Amino acid sequence: MDVLRTPDDRFAGLPGYDFEPHYLMVDDTEGGELRMHYLDEGPADADPVLLLHGEPSWCYLYRKMIPVLVAAGHRVIAPDLIGFGRSDKPASRNDYTYQRHVDWTRNVLTQLALNHITLVCQDWGGLIGLRLVAEHPDRFQRVVAANTMLPTGDHDPGEAFLRWQTFSQETPVFKVGSIIQSGTALDMPADVVAAYDAPFPDESFKEGARQFPTLVPTSPEDPACEPNRQAWKTLFTFRKPFLTAFSDKDPITAAAGPVIRKLIPGCEGQEHTTITDGGHFLQEDQGEALADVVVRFIAANPREGS
């Protein structure tokens, strides 16, 4: 597998992002290894809050939330998915599959020996993270789903998503920072837009970002459909605390919140919230507000013996 690695100087001096990088090595499934980046902030002995980003962002998306969560006493783990951020980027689009993303991200749980996890997931962070919850329910204590879903290909994904999928494949230049801006409700400063572009020096680094929209199951024949259906069988019985925190200005995932609340037992009795003035990337628009929701959710649902 041919792999690209973004030079470290691309990440110097990014606004609001002063975190120490950490790395682990994951099996590329072809006899080699990939370097995966993650942030690890807060007390090492505290229960972890796992922040999973989506497409085409990276852990920079969580920079506003991390200080709030750490100030509340939590350990925060925020990885960059393979193909994004400071993580390695396989050079061929065919190197990226849904199953590989799940397997690569599973290493964060196993290599860091994470337990009693509070998962916070948005966009593809949910498509990957909810699979991990279903496959390793004993490792997870709570879940916060924000503008995400676990699709099985059995339902229409909606016009907004199909337009995005088409655009992602047809646009000659995949302008990551501009795409993030188009998915927010508030204007971003130019240096923040540039920070989202930082992991991608040129188009050759964007194969993972280009591929992600095609990996979302949109028909019953998709190879990820059956694993996701199996995951739902576990989620249908998942009774640990589960919170939806969607935003008010996201046309892509707006319909998913009520479905999740209906289908997952752990949603019962929780104070589900709609975060105002937030687009699809609500962490960018309203990161502190979402972090406050997470802090209150954890406090309201303490782990036994904690």
List keywords for this structure.
10 strands, 8-stranded mixed beta sheet, 35% helix, alpha/beta, two-stranded antiparallel ribbon, 306 residues, Rossmann fold
Written account of the structure:
- The protein is an alpha/beta fold and 306 residues long.
- The chain has a single domain, classed as Alpha/Beta hydrolase fold, catalytic domain (Rossmann fold), CATH 3.40.50.
- It is built from 10 helices and 10 strands.
- The chain has an 8-stranded mixed β-sheet, with helices on both faces. Strands 1-6 form a two-stranded antiparallel sheet.
- Strand 4, helix 1 and strand 5 (75-79) form a beta-alpha-beta unit.
- Helix 3 crosses helix 8 (225-235) and helix 5 packs across helix 6 (190-197).
The largest beta-sheet arranges its strands as 2-3-5-4-7-8-9-10
Number of helices: 10
**What is the mean pLDDT?**
97
Provide the CATH architecture: 3-Layer(aba) Sandwich
Report the β-strand fraction as a percent range.
Answer: 15-25%
Largest sheet at a glance?
Answer: 8 strands, mixed
Radius of gyration from CA coordinates: 18 Å
